[in-house]
Amino acid sequence: SLKTQFRALFHNKAILAVIVCMFCHGLQMQGRQTIATYYFTYYAGNFSIFQIFNTISAVLGIVGAFAAPYLYQLVKSKAKAARIAFYLLAGSMILQYFIPCPNTGFYILTAVNGLGSGLFTALIFSMIPDATDYSQRRDKIRIDGFLAAMASFAFKAGGSIGAALIGVVLNATGYVANQIQNAATLKSINLMMTVAPAAFVI
Question: CA separation (Å) from 64 to 60, 90, 149?
């Protein structure tokens, strides 16, 4: 029953940790993707750079996803491998606050960020079957689909909330579409592109 599935969910600390991580990952990932359009339009002053940013992020994200199993084998722990991905993500975004676009360093950090994102996404999804095995041992119930759905929901919920928060912050700082933005808005855009998503990763 649904009640039994939720009981097993709340008894499973591993899947609860995965759900929290998925929520934060969705929040920072979708939030950063949303604010990127404002960042390159108003902060960097050249929206065409957005395509370069997206391409670098996507290509290195794929590389990171394929590299995740090798990193796991190297460190012998998914938790340690995920922490390495965290450090790559958070470190690269914080440094981008001090090395803004357009700048060669910004693109290098974008590549590091894409790699970290790909690594973490692959690792966190690979933890769901492990958590499912734990539920089966503890509660004698196999609920793969339910746990995967809850983790996926957390990721999407985080993404939705992240995008909504950006609108709230921009309105609060006096954002006006298609105009030169004030200093407070530009600072908030830079923070939401760099430091804020790094905080959610940490």
Answer: 6, 15, 24
pTM for this predicted structure: 0.85
The closest of 30, 53, 26 to 41, measured between CA atoms, is: 53
> What is the C-alpha separation between 33 and 57, in angstroms, rounded?
10
Question: 114: closest CA among 52, 43, 195, 49?
Answer: 52
Q: Across the 202 residues of the chain, what is the mean pLDDT of every consecutive 10-residue run? A: 79 85 88 92 90 94 95 91 91 92 90 94 86 75 81 91 91 91 94 89 70
Query: Residue 39: left (phi > 0), alpha (psi -120 to 50), or beta?
Result: alpha
Residue with the two structure tokens 């009981």: 7
Element housing 43 (H / E): none
